Amino acid sequence: MGDVYSFGPFRLLPQSRVLQRDGERVMVGTRAFDMLVAMVRRAGEVLSHRELMAAAWPNLIVCETNVRVQMAHLRRCLCCGDGANYIINVARRGYSFIAPLQSKSVIPNELMGDGAPRPLPAPMASAVGRDDSQAALSALLRSRRCVTVVGAGGAGKTTLAVLVAHAMNEFAGRRVFVDLGVLDRDAAILEAIAGAMGLRVPKDRRVLLDFIAAQNTLMVLDNCEHVIDGAAEFIDQIRVRSPRLHVLATSREPLHVQGEVVYLIPPLGTPPPTGRLTARQAIQWPAVQLFMDLAARAGHPRELTDDQAPVVAAICRRVDGNPLAIALTASRVGRYTIDGVANLLCNPLALRWQGPRDAVPRHRSAEAVLDWSCGLLSAQHTNMLHRLAEFSGEFSFDAALARAPDGVEFGEAADILHDLIDKSLLSVNATGSTATLRLLDATRTYAAIKLTSQAAPA
To answer: How many angstroms separate the CA atoms of 257 and 239, rounded?
Structure first.
């Protein structure tokens, strides 16, 4: 089970504890074998004497002389110096495996599935304005083993994750995409991961976990928020087993697991509400670019004019640079015109504007996006969110706490506010020494409708 490494005439099978030369077994002692495995799995890196001792003598205290003795034995077994040099000594630092290396995974029989691993989804052609985010997230994922892209529904988390996965060539052929959005329970996560890898789940799930942990793979766990406990448990189990698996998760809230790094996806850039705006200036902003591109696809026949530029900029600001909200709005321009869409955005019925028929159900309208998010809230969180809809703009933490439902104490109300922020339903604007809160326009409209329906007599 696990990986098979090839270098020169040698094949190394760590799980079977076998080293072969031209198909013949090479007798290597236990300590030397463990040091070889440690170096091969971190090929190109320098492993210190302390790291090699931990690999070969776990839970024992030994002197560095033991490392030198075993290394000399290992290099003789590998015929180092006879026209080949697989391991070098880096003065005062340790040892490094430097030979060109090939590896492949051997799948145990009990994991063999009926299908092949699923390919990554194709990247979206209209992913404008995400170059900086892609570069930042890629760099973060190369240095950290668990990164979660967090943002509101429709912010483009999946789009960005797919772009990054395609761009990371160091994981070519070893990229797994798992859509958790179709699951209805935490317990199904391991089955979904196995299915995406073309595997099946054995009776002893530890076999599958150990196999996954042995892979040098980039795994994208998409839409974690509704099965967040199960996703967090899986990552915790893998973290202690694997030094090489990288996980890129997307969620409307952080997973809060050890080692996680959160990347808050920014909205698409929109023009600020200052000064006279021309069409040439407006079209430089990603949100306006996306709006006009999608409006043209929806039947809008003309390019952006100077008169329309401030209106489109205001629309993009009103939907907070959210790519899905921009798409749903732009799709109506062909019939209603730009000015008509701007006026209709004030109508609560805009929440029900339908997107593409092939979109996932939670992305077919702004209302569906919010139904998905709010459906994960407790009754107290829902009540608090509805009460915050009474604020038309920014408001302070103190003002928000004053709107807590009856019977909810101060500390509990503060926790609820922080949870709503974590779940991307409430945004924070921190400027200088003060911070204010704000509901996104669509969220406020949605919550206000719910609050009104609650208050209406039966």
So the answer is: 10
Predicted confidence (pLDDT) per residue in 248-297, tens digit: 999 999 999 999 999 999 999 999 998 889 999 999 999 999 999 999 99
pLDDT band of residue 242 (cuts 50, 70, 90) is confident
Give me the mean pLDDT over the 163-170 stretch.
89
**Could you tell me the sign of the dihedral formed by the alpha carbons of 336, 340, 341, 347, in that order?**
negative
CATH number attached to the domain at 2-103:
1.10.10.10
For residues 157 and 250, the answer to whether their CB atoms sit within 8 Å is: yes
What's the CATH number of domain 368-455, 3.40.50.10750, 1.10.1040.50, 1.10.3720.10, 1.10.10.10? 1.10.10.10
Tokens (6 digits) for 362: 């939670």
Matching residue, tokens 């060539």: 169
Contact 135, 235 (CB under 8 A): no
* Domain spans in the chain, listed from the N-terminal domain onward: 2-103, 111-264, 279-345, 368-455
Strand residues in 2-145 grouped as ranges (E) = 2-7, 10-13, 18-21, 24-25, 46-47, 87-90, 94-97, 102-106
Domain 111-264 has CATH 3.20.20.140: no
